[in-house]
Design a protein that fits this description.
D-Maltodextrin-Binding Protein, domain 2; two-stranded antiparallel sheet; about 25% strand
């Protein structure tokens, strides 16, 4: 059974060609592919449209009625139906992508030139920040962010998972000695990232023996911007949980120092999120596949199905 609105223009072309061999030549398709299409069309419409024989085919009564109706209507319907359907198969148009700030700036944005080279008919609109609550009304095609969406109608595919660390600037630790135990975090200035997928003020640490420590910290400063949180860290405003990849260079240069390094910190997972599993535009499908292959090349992600 056809899952999409059938391409009636192909039916018209076959009938006008007169024979399968001529239709094959005109359309550049194999006779077998055309025959399969005609069978699917008949199943879709629950009508026999063509009577087949060793000599070829001829239209049934239903087939002739359909042909005569389409021959008049299709030229007017093509601009309306043809363009949306073609976009399901051919990547084209504007793709609006929303990504969390740090990942978007450092990992996603550098990949867009290669994507554009592969798919020149797709223009990219990249927005850095939190995704809007209603993706469809805001016109967003793809979201890349930490945490799974609340809306269960959306598809979320995990891209990468990063270990996090608790850290601070040496200047801060010179004023406030580093905690030796998670319970001592209450004595420190804790910096909080308040956005979707973030840990906010509930920090879960695991000690070397496997014990879990869930600490509800008292926020000293709160922001919804991961870059601002990092700047506060570097300026010595307090302690924060940060993804290690985001601060790796600062750790290497000694501008930030790990705190409670013997404890296992929570991990941060990033997802690529889009709407629905059916009738996915080609621009969305190829972008999701591209970003998966680039950000997690060593894994075997479940392939996106149209």
């Amino acid at each position: 059974m056809m899952k999409r609105t059938p391409d009636f223009s192909l039916f018209l072309a076959v009938v006008k060609a007169g024979t399968l061999s001529e239709a094959s030549r005109v359309l550049g398709m194999s006779a077998a592919a055309i025959s399969k299409y005609l069978s699917q069309l008949e199943q879709h419409m629950k009508l026999r449209l063509l009577a087949r024989s060793a000599r070829g085919f001829h239209l049934t009564e239903h087939g002739r009625e359909l042909f005569e109706s389409l021959d008049h209507m299709l030229p007017e319907l093509t601009p309306i139906l043809g363009e949306p359907m073609s976009r399901l198969d051919h990547p084209t148009g504007t793709l609006k992508v929303v990504s969390s700030i740090a990942l978007g700036r450092h990992r996603v944005a550098p990949l867009l030139s290669e994507f554009s080279a592969r798919y020149p008919e797709v223009s990219i609109q990249l927005q850095l920040g939190d995704a809007p609550e209603d993706l469809f009304r805001s016109g967003v095609d793809v979201v890349i962010s930490p945490g799974e969406p609340i809306d269960q109608s959306l598809v979320a595919r995990r891209l990468i998972t990063h270990p996090c660390c608790l850290c601070a600037a040496p200047d801060y630790l010179a004023r406030r000695p580093a905690p030796a135990h998670p319970r001592e975090l209450h004595q420190h200035d804790c910096l909080i990232l308040d956005c979707h997928g973030a840990f906010r003020d509930r920090w879960v640490l695991r000690d070397p023996r496997g014990g879990t420590h869930t600490i509800k910290v008292a926020p000293h400063k709160i922001t919804d911007n991961s870059e601002q949180l990092k700047q506060w860290l570097l300026d010595g405003h307090g302690l924060a949980l940060k993804s290690e990849w985001d601060i790796a260079e600062h750790l290497r240069r000694g501008e930030l120092v790990k705190v409670l390094p013997d404890y296992e910190m929570p991990r941060l997972s990033f997802y690529v999120i889009y709407g629905g599993r059916q009738l996915i535009p080609a621009k969305t499908r190829v972008f999701v596949q591209f970003i998966e292959n680039q950000l997690r090349p060593r894994e075997n992600p479940e392939r996106l199905r149209a």
